[in-house]
Amino acid sequence: MTIIHNLGFPRMGAQRELKRSLEAYWAGQTSQEELLETGRSLRAHHWDLQSKAGLDTVPIGDFAWYDQILEWSTLLGVVPARFAQADNSPVSLDTMFRMARGRAPSGTPAVACEMTKWFDTNYHYIVPELAPGQTFRIARESLFEQIEEAKTLGYKAKPVIPGPLTWLWLGKGDAYEGLADVGKLALLDALLPVYEQVLTRFKAQGVEWVQIDEPILVLDLPQQWQDAFGRVYQTLNQAGLSVLLATYFDDFRENVALLKGLPIAGVHVDAVRAPAALQAVHAVLGQEQILSAGVISGRNIWRTDLDKTAQTLQPLKEALGERLWIAPSCSLLHVPVDLHGETGLDAELTSWLSFAVQKLDELRLLQGLLDGTLDEAGKQAVQAQRAALKSRRESRRTHNPSVQAQMAQIDKLTRQRAPFAQRIEAQRNKLKLPAYPTTTIGSFPQTIEIRTARRDWRGGSLSDSAYEKAMQAEIEQVIRFQERIGLDVLVHGEAERNDMVEYFGELLAGFAFTQNGWVQSYGSRCVKPPIIFGDVLRVAPMSVAWSSYAQSLTDLPVKGMLTGPVTMLQWSFVRDDQPRADTCRQLALALREEVSDLEQAGIHVIQLDEPAFREGLPLRKGDWQVYLDWAVDCFRLSTSAVSDETQIHTHMCYSEFNDIMQSIADMDADVITIETSRSNMLLLEAFENFEYPNDIGPGVYDIHSPNVPDKDWMVRLMGEAAKRLPADRLWVNPDCGLKTRGWTETEASLLAMVDAAKVLRAAA
């Protein structure tokens, strides 16, 4: 029989049980033992789901309290000195949380570790922070304990761990320049013995297979990193376990040669992103090695064409027999848990979708097709799958004639504004801002009162007029607060928005929404990505009334707040029946109309957030330019129909900018705000070296930590910024929106930020 297996399962729970438990623990409302019990319960439930789907093994190590890279870093004892970890003592759960968030129920608060995107996904990981001469040891027992949990419950465990080369590649530190720094490879001598110890302990626990994830094999690797694979896996082979080397998100390409002769038991291929990789890997496999074909998308939510997939796999099945395994393309972490219970979607659209639980069912059906073992229920399920795919192909709701007419004329629309020097002069005359102008990124705390009003309004117990008055009251409170503390460019606070993408998607044709389609973004933060199933069209203004109301309350400029087209694309589950670039252009056309209407309503500062701009970048540099060309074009298409005196802002966070600076400059936003607080302004080196021509707001405090920043700390950070960039082009702002923060810390933090700006102006 064809083996089916899984690379990882969503950890938050179908009802976000882990999120609620984490946040209650961080708030001091529950005990650590209650938190641990939530974890045990979720793991058991998820293993049960996977076992009942027919998986021979269950993945262990895909569960994490914050993220899997942080889990592994702490298991290896890699804890920065500021967290005061004793040399030989276990790393506690609270130390892990302090590394991620800056504070925990116990332990002294400290500056949190850097967080950034996991390859080209919206999942974030905590960057390993490496010190010169870094040492390693087994410092946490949780992974081994989870293996025992699974064994006790009767499941066969397949541990899933980050590969040593991928983990090192992701690490940073003062002694290392960047991801490709070969100096990190010198740490292998100390790192590999600990990996061997881990694998040896797995074997002693009865483990047969271990999945070692090396996704850097889909990147452009320097020669020294390529050369290291042979040495690393020769060493790990001594532990005597069967190693499944897993990679995903793209093709091996030239790195496939590294697999030849590698002493591993099998290789996992992302055949959704890279169908050609199946044959390429097959060609270099040894006679006893396994090929794991990742043929069910772990990144999107559309049903799989099982017949087409089986047809693709059949020659491999004939050649490999039981050495062909099938799996999702990557961990199912990136999709919602279960489609059951989504009563808000119509039956036709629901039939097109597949979440994590349904993807496991698809694996079992595909196994039956390949092996010829489908029972009657399986045959009926496959027939239902065929009918759903036919329905989607033939549905009229996916195409809108008016959108197609707009797209036919899109090349005639201007993307060009006047030179920045001309625009900024007009904007300064219009806005009359001081040196080091202060602003926020957009959102203010979403209080219980706000969420309750939205829930009651959606549920029908609060009328439209009452809801509007409630939101206007929240907007006025935010405006008065900003005036009182002395901010220069205000925002309306986004009280009416549930999510920066979902809010706009609900007002656009072509989108659909789930009730419980939650996906983890980082830590306890979950998002509910919209589903773009058809052509996108703006039906009516989406933000103009709220922004206009806010502007009517004050003489200070109020920013109109929009989500940019690339981020709306990246943070949605996107239709796969047309090029992503075309869907993005449809979004840009809708936003272009919104920007124009905001300007006509008297809003002369408009921000289009693009935190996902770099996230969409292909993993191979040779593929970058095609993406960057259409991504930049979509941003400019959205923003170019305004006058010189209307100031366009954009915001980007938790990304590496050095290698795409030209494209960021080509977006031609008047002001870009970025995250720099966790990196101590190091990200500004990219803007300095490139000589970025427009205004910049380097975030001076980390909103993902509950710690209130010190005024002097922010002054120092801005001083570092002023060494790199002209002071007259610098803004002062947080590094992201304030939606997830509480009012007490928000007020204290923004007061300190405004005071810091006053100090900077006095010294200018």
UniProtKB/TrEMBL annotation:
Could you cite one Gene Ontology molecular function of this protein?
A: 5-methyltetrahydropteroyltriglutamate-homocysteine S-methyltransferase activity
Say yes or no: keyword Mitochondrion present. no
Annotated residues that bind L-homocysteine are located at 441-443, 494, 609
Q: What is this protein called?
A: 5-methyltetrahydropteroyltriglutamate--homocysteine methyltransferase
Cofactors that this protein relies on: Zn(2+)
Where is the Cobalamin-independent methionine synthase MetE C-terminal/archaeal domain positioned along the sequence?
437-758
Q: In which pathway does it act?
A: Amino-acid biosynthesis; L-methionine biosynthesis via de novo pathway; L-methionine from L-homocysteine (MetE route): step 1/1
Question: Which SUPFAM superfamilies does this entry report, sorted A to Z?
Answer: UROD/MetE-like
Share an example GO biological-process annotation for this protein: methionine biosynthetic process
Annotated coiled-coil segments of the chain: none
Q: What does this protein do?
A: Catalyzes the transfer of a methyl group from 5-methyltetrahydrofolate to homocysteine resulting in methionine formation.
Q: Which Gene3D superfamilies match?
A: 3.20.20.210
Specify the enzyme's EC class, one word.
transferase
Positions contributing to Zn(2+) binding: 651, 653, 675, 736
Keyword Zinc on this protein? yes
Catalytic residues at 704 (proton donor)
Recorded catalytic reaction(s): these are:
5-methyltetrahydropteroyltri-L-glutamate + L-homocysteine = tetrahydropteroyltri-L-glutamate + L-methionine
Q: Which family does it belong to?
A: Belongs to the vitamin-B12 independent methionine synthase family.
**Superkingdom as given in the UniProt entry:** Bacteria
Q: Where does Zn(2+) 1 bind?
A: 651, 653, 666, 675, 736
The Enzyme Commission number assigned here is: 2.1.1.14
Q: Cobalamin-independent methionine synthase MetE N-terminal domain: which residues? A: 5-319
Alphabetized UniProt keyword annotations: Amino-acid biosynthesis, Metal-binding, Methionine biosynthesis, Methyltransferase, Repeat, Transferase, Zinc
| Species of provenance | Alcaligenes pakistanensis
- Paste the cofactor note: Binds 1 zinc ion per subunit. Binds 2 Zn(2+) ions per subunit.
